[in-house]
Amino acid sequence: MKRIVSGLTLICLVAAAARGANPIPAEYKVNGFAIGCQAYTFNRFSAFEAIEKTAATGAKVIEFYPGQKFSKEQPNLTWDHNATDEMIARMQAKLKEHGIKAVNYGVVGISENEAEARKVFEFAKKMGLRAVTTESVESINTIEKLVKEYDIMVGFHNHGGSMSQPGYKVWDPLYIAGVITGRDQRIGAAGDTGHWCTSKLTPVEGLRLLKGRMISVHLKDKKEPGQSHDVPYGEGVAGIKACLDELKAQGFDGNLSIEYEYNWDNNVPECTQCVDFVKAYGK
User: Domains in the chain, start-ordered, CATH in brackets?
Assistant: First the structure.
């Protein structure tokens, strides 16, 4: 990742610490980290079941995504930012039942149209979320206005990409650094270490480049660089310990989401291994 190292001069432009409303309470952290599951890990199941499975891993926080079935009993209801107040109340009760806190929502498109974008922020406010995850860099002006109004953070997420795909830019931490430079400190990055591996980048260097502007992380380990499947922390090439070292050094206070995109029907054991890795970190 020499290309990124050469761009480290951008750090001085983005190094201010990102802070916003709804900090994650200590009781929802594991060994100092707010480690939890991205509900997409359990996309074969409902949002209610995703909460149950997250609790089974030993994690204490969850990141929802738009479009999941609401519950096993009501599969025709969709869980997203168009949810009714009654659905939100039921979801909050389910979270409380299992001792899980919802902290983030995404990856969700945020419209340039303020009225449409506001629906996402209203949902986040009602759910008491710390942040929203998106790739909608084209909506940066609308996003900046609304993070100030709602005091809710927004992190830009990355999927895999390369220089040979010029139409998709957010895969590159340097591009994200450029997007967020000079913007409100509640706007930053939601780095996906697995997709950085897919892009053949070194995750810890991406975290260093975006120092102080990491809103959240989809913390994933991959079997090998490029196209490969997820593996439990410490068994792949992402350098999870180095990533945790870097985040700790940065004073990172966002959520770490286990988005385990493998063994879809029975991945609670692998997710539990990831939580256990964080429990054992530094010991």
Answer: 28-280 (3.20.20.150)
